[in-house]
TrEMBL record:
Pfam families: UPF0102
Family that this chain belongs to: Belongs to the UPF0102 family.
Coiled-coil region list: none
Origin species: Kushneria sinocarnis
Classification via InterPro entries: Restrct_endonuc-II-like, tRNA_endonuc-like_dom_sf, UPF0102_YraN-like
Protein name in the entry: UPF0102 protein C7446_2222
Record keywords, A-Z: Endonuclease, Hydrolase, Nuclease
GO molecular function, one term: nucleic acid binding
Amino acid sequence: MSTRPPAQRRRHGHDIELLTARWLSERGLREIARNQHARGGEIDLIMRDGDTLVFVEVRYRRDCHHGSAVESVTPAKQRRIVQAARFYLARERLSCACRFDVVGVTGTPEALEFDWIRAAFDAF
């Protein structure tokens, strides 16, 4: 667990999400929204990949000593993301192809590594 104060952790998380959005944009995705809160869940990034709406979970770890960032997206977390995505789609009155991606970010801001898992899980 981090010893940083909660406000500092939130800021760091925001910065990592911003860097991840830029990284994904450089790979052809277009940012739609960030930090969408919806009924028990949050979606870190919502992006477009062509006609597909992509809900992106961003996970950060300084190192992999306690497992990779991607491995930390548990089935319970997946359910909360799916629930939040359904709420977002209903609220925005959208009906389109969707995908759930996970981006694991490891390292320090000077040397980040991105592990992008497209279609990491399905809505269930």
